[in-house]
Amino acid sequence: MKDFNYYLDSLGEIGFVEELMHSLIYASGLPRVHPGELVLFESGDLGQVFSLTPEKIEVLLLTRANLKVGSKLVRTDTRMQIPVGVGLLGRVIDPLGNPLDGAKLTDTEDVRTVDIAPPKIVERVEVQKPLITGVTLVDLVVPLGCGQRELVIGDRKTGKTDFLLQSMVTQAKLGSICIYAQIGQKQFDIKKMSEFFAETGIKKNTVLVASSSSDPAGVVFQTPYTAMTIAEYFRDKGLDVLLILDDMTTHARNYREISLLAKRFPGRASYPGDIFYVHARLIERAGNFKKGSITALPVAESILGDLSGYIQTNLMAMTDGHIFFDIELYNQGKRPSVNPFLSVTRVGHQTQTDLQRDLSRELSSFLVTYEKMKQFMHFGAEVGETAKKILALGNKVDSFFNQSPTASIPLEINMIILGGLWAGVWSETKEADLRRQMERLVLAYNTEGSFKKQVDDLITQSKSFSDLVNFIRRNNEFLTSKITG
Amino acid sequence: MFDQILSKIRTVDDQEKILEEIDVLLSSLYQDKGLGFESTLKTSARAWLYPLLREEFSKEGANRRNLLLNLKQKIEGLSKVYITLAFEPSEDALNRFGGVIRTSVREDVIISVAYDPHLIGGVQIIYNGEFRDFSFKRIFEKEFENTREQILKSIKN
């Protein structure tokens, strides 16, 4: 960005601030300015043209400006752009592309416009590759695919961020580029996130785009668009990108604030009429493309588990499914507190192999039966042997799904463990020992090459879940030797 | 009447003063059962404005309020040309500038003059958001940019 006098000389247009309204400026002049264009004030502050009327220009401030009526501004004849390149990896930047972690940005080979139209249908490809999150419940029941847009929704403090970070760690270790957009969050949380990336060793594969709650509204508004632009750069390099937008309800509230200040007519819940478009044009930029993929996980906060909120339903409409974090399950001690009955994946199952699909179907069906049995138990009725077995297995499945937020479990060993549960390997095991034994299997899979090969081969050879279960039933010593050993 | 009044307004200062006077007249329209307006017209309106308004108000069917509001609207709608000079102009210079601008641009423009000695000479003009810099400062800066190396060399020598 050049200086004020440069643009004044080269473009020959000037404007004057007529009115100031918090983060919105009304100015006169600049006859050839267009919406979305960046304007530069004499003080060096930056703004973006929000809208135009015949008499005035409405400018959204992008810096903490100390302006007065009569201050001068000039056009820059550019839209918002940010530097992109491999130099962004491992860095924390603000939505304007300025580094927040001290050092200057290097290795930024390109500059990209932040707000662009989503790619057309010709450039898109079917979602085919699975996206492994490392979270057992999600990978088996609500599987995701590379290029999917999956909404992560739930009340505050239900473990959404833990799930997202687990997914990031798993994907970063598999070589994907992970971009985390923190939208209008506390500065301390931004710092914690940056430290987390460093501690887990995934910093070199991640970019953190952060805006704090004290930043100007225009900056907070731009955060997810900047993150998406960076994701598109890496996608165009042929890489798979995981993009997390945390959270879109804060973004919507921020845009509502700007719109109400700009005296736009308030719609439902005082949100402006174009709130759907603001989010849709962002989410639609993610997907699976010929060059690479962008898997978007936008986050939405619900109030008391209400999925029918305005922003929540908007986001559900523009995504390929949602993972619902249930406050009731969280209060029961389930981690992650994903409600498998209210979570949906529209394109995840097409990425699964036949075995995985069969397993997923069997598991979902069992969970429904188990849930009905539990409700039946509330009446205090006598239960038969079948019901007792279902309840016992259900308890073990609950233990199986309970997972530490720091653990990332490969899908293959999850499938074997589930097969073992179905085959009755742990039918006599106490629940207290069950988790420990499962963890031993995971450890063996991660550390012993021979066991890993054995498991992978078994998965490859099994055509259906019943094949897998039957094999384990007949040859369970390859599991039991790891559990007891 | 309107054309005569508008032709007398040359600068933004003139415009602001006339508008103030019109506001005072509007607020006195209904004072003392309408009698307050006459005395306010005599005491508040400037010498050249008084006879023009007097003549207009004495016409049959003249609505004072509407006339004043229309006049106010027309005066507020005058286009402004902002010029920045390196010196404070005299009355005569101001008249000449106004004449040239009205001939070249439009009849109903008024000028706002600012003073910036850093321009050294020449003028900066702003009209309808368009900015043109014809000052000596710009010429010298551009010249210095082109011949900076030569000048620095000759200074060192």
What does this structure look like?
The complex is a heterodimer of chains A (485) and B (157). Chain A has 485 residues and is of the alpha/beta class. Chain A has helices at 4-11, 136-141, 160-173, 187-199, 217-236, 248-261, 275-283, 310-317, 327-331, 354-377, 385-401, 411-423, 431-447, 449-461, 465-474, 477-484, and strands spanning 15-21, 24-29, 37-41, 46-52, 57-61, 72-79, 81-84, 92-93, 110-113, 130-131, 144-145, 151-154, 177-185, 206-212, 240-246, 287-288, 293-301, 321-325, 344-345. In chain A, helix 10 (354-377) packs across helix 11 and helix 13 (431-447) crosses helix 14 (449-461). The radius of gyration of chain A is 26 Å and the shape is elongated. Chain B has 2 domains: 2-76, no CATH class; 79-154, no CATH class. Chain B has 7 helices and 4 strands. Chain B has a 4-stranded mixed beta sheet with strand order 2-1-3-4. In chain B, a hairpin with a 2-residue loop joins strand 3 and strand 4 (130-133). The mean pLDDT of chain B is 85. The chains are: A alpha/beta (485), B alpha+beta (157).
Q: Quick gist of this model?
A:
Chain B: Keywords: ATP synthesis, Hydrogen ion transport, Ion transport, Membrane, Transport. The complex is a heterodimer of chains A (485) and B (157). With 485 residues, chain A is an alpha/beta fold.
- In the CATH classification, which architecture of the largest domain in chain A applies? 3-Layer(aba) Sandwich
- Tell me the number of helical segments of chain A per DSSP (H or I, 4 or more residues long): 16
Main beta-sheet annotation of chain B? 4 strands, mixed
Order of helices and strands of chain B: HHHHHEHEEEH
| Measured distance between first and last alpha carbons of chain A | 64 Å
Overall 3D form of chain A = elongated
Q: What does the radius of gyration of chain B come to?
A: 23 Å
Q: Mind telling me the CATH class of the largest domain in chain A?
A: Alpha Beta
Q: CATH homologous superfamily of the largest domain in chain A - what is it?
A: P-loop containing nucleotide triphosphate hydrolases
- Average pLDDT for all residues of chain B: 85
* Rounded radius of gyration of chain A (Å): 26 Å
Number of helices of chain B: 7
**Most extensive chain interface and residues per partner:** A-B, 10 and 8 residues
The overall average pLDDT of chain A, rounded, is 93
Low-confidence stretches of chain A: none
Task: Give me the count of strands of chain A.
Answer: 19
The helicity of chain A comes to 40-55%
How large a portion of the residues of chain B is in β-strands, by DSSP E? 5-15%
Which regions of chain B are unreliable across 5 or more consecutive residues at pLDDT < 50? none
